[in-house]
Design brief:
By secondary structure, the chain is an alpha+beta fold. It is built from 3 helices and 6 strands. A 4-stranded antiparallel sheet has the order 2-3-5-4. Strand 2 and strand 3 form a beta hairpin. InterPro entries: Bact_2-comp_sensor_kinase, HATPase_C_sf, HATPase_dom.
């Protein structure tokens, strides 16, 4: 999986959202990050899973994502960025974790069709 391009600040945005929406400072909050090589259909991808032990997503939020009314701008922007970058709308999946909090799954294609001069990517 070495060399899989990752949009700058992509993972950071999810971590920031955990602190903004799931951490109240009164209880211990755990965050888990897992990266694995997998296929999405026939496309080799790095699957990034971020889970926390916070309050999770509401059922209403999950049913209405991505929002059409300008709410939840951070996550909606990421969803749109993934579509614009990779040309696919199935690379971001949100759900609630068995840990009790939120689960975010990102599939990042190993060889996206893009201009190599794109500075939005970070190769490490």
């Amino acid at each position: 999986m070495r060399g899989v391009p990752v949009q700058k600040l992509l993972i950071q945005t999810f971590i920031e959202n955990i602190f903004k929406h799931a951490f109240d400072g009164k209880q211990t909050l755990s965050i888990f990050l897992r990266v694995q090589h997998t296929l999405l259909g026939a496309v080799p991808c790095a699957k990034v899973t971020i889970e926390d032990t916070g309050c999770g997503f509401t059922e209403e939020f999950l049913a209405d994502f991505p929002p059409q009314n300008g709410e939840k701008v951070g996550l909606a922007n990421i969803a749109q960025t993934l579509v614009l970058t990779y040309g696919r709308a199935d690379l971001l999946r949100l759900s609630n974790s068995e840990l009790g909090g939120a689960r975010v799954e990102l599939w990042l294609p190993e060889h996206p069709e893009r201009n190599d001069s794109n500075e939005a990517f970070d190769r490490g």
